[in-house]
Amino acid sequence: MARPEQVLLLEPQHELRFRGPFTDVVTTTLKLANPTDRNVCFKVKTTAPRRYCVRPNSGVIDAGTSINVSVMLQPFDYDPNEKSKHKFMVQSLLAPPDMTDTEGVWKDAKPEDLMDSKLRCVFEMPAENEKTHEMESNKISSSLSKSESSTLSMKSMASSLDDGEVKKIMEECKRLQTEVQRLREENRQIRQEDDGLRMRKSTVMSAPHSSQAVRVKEEGLSTRVIALIVLFFVVGVIVGKLAL
């Protein structure tokens, strides 16, 4: 006996697409809509239960409503040459009006009451430029989230301080600024005194050299004068003898 046609509307209808890179969890959404006037029980099954996390994987969809099922693919080493053989099946049945135990309904259900739809999994790896763009977008979003969290933490810290504590912190800052200014002034005075000592030391060291140079010059002049006097005397004696 053929099974009845699926009453739930699936979106997507035939394929669950997962977009890489697959170094982290990749999530896709399966929407299940119940257009009937009765509640519908559903279950989501997969051929690779260790590779996927499905939330919720079962439940009841009220009449005229819908539900979003998150299908999370766990990280794995992607091989582009390997085709995915993973499949999903959405199983459903009409809930009885007096239902109190969902598991009991599934156990008591007859095969002809079950409806199912099958979907295959498709893995897509983005191009290099798209991958770079996604990585940059992730970096920007992570940096923004960090800055927002730091801003919020600063605001919460400021709000946790009362006026008295804020006043103490401001006074401590002023005291530290005054101490820094005083240390700078002392450092400047020490530099000035050090420069004065160096100038006096250089003056004292240069004074003996200058007096010694003057004495040397005076001794040189006196020696020249004596030599000239002796020369004139000798010349005068010779001229006097010639005259006689």
UniProtKB/TrEMBL annotation:
One Pfam family, short name: Motile_Sperm
Compositional bias segments (type: Low complexity): 138-151
Subcellular location: Endoplasmic reticulum membrane
Presence of keyword Acetylation: yes
Major location category of this protein: endoplasmic reticulum
Keyword list, A-Z: Acetylation, Coiled coil, Endoplasmic reticulum, Isopeptide bond, Membrane, Phosphoprotein, Transmembrane, Transmembrane helix, Ubl conjugation, Unfolded protein response
Every MSP domain range: 7-124
Stretches of the chain forming a coiled coil according to its record: 166-200
Superkingdom of the organism of origin: Eukaryota
Protein name as annotated: MSP domain-containing protein
Species name: Onychostoma macrolepis
